[in-house]
Amino acid sequence: MQPVMAVVVDNQILRYPEHWLIVIDKTKKWCHERGETFYRILRGRYLSERVDVVCQELQISNDYFYRTLEKIRNYAALNAAWYHLIAF
Q1: What is the pLDDT, as a whole number, of residue 29?
Q2: 76 vs 70: CA distance, rounded Å
Q3: What is the DSSP code string of 23-73?
C-alpha cells in the first residue's frame, strides 16, 4: 500500500500527512512525559482556550506559559525537520 502523499485541509494542500501525524503524536507524548503542565499548555493552546484561563488553572504566569509553549513548538519543529517536512 502506498503512503498518502497529500490531502487538502481547509483548501490548503498538506503534503505527507502521515508524517505530520507522527510529529503530532511524538509531541503529545513528549509533553505528557514532562508532566501535566506541559500537556495542559499544549492542549489549551490548540483548543483555542484563553491563555489567562489556562494560566489561572495551572497557577502559572503568562511568561511561563509562553516559554513552555516555545519549548513545545521547538520540539515539534525539530521533529518536522527530521521528517523533512520543514527546513531550517
Answers
A1: 97
A2: 10
A3: HHHHHHHHHHHH-HHHHHHHHHHHTT--HHHHHHHHT--HHHHHHHHHHHH
Specify the 3-state DSSP secondary structure of 8. Answer: strand
The number of helices, as runs of H, and strands, as runs of E, in the chain is 4, 2
**pLDDT per residue as tens digits for the range 33-65:** 999 999 999 999 989 999 999 999 999 999 999
C-alpha cell, 87: 527546513
Q: What is the pTM of this model?
A: 0.86
> How many other CB atoms sit within 10 Å of the CB of residue 6?
10
What 3-state class would DSSP assign to 61? coil
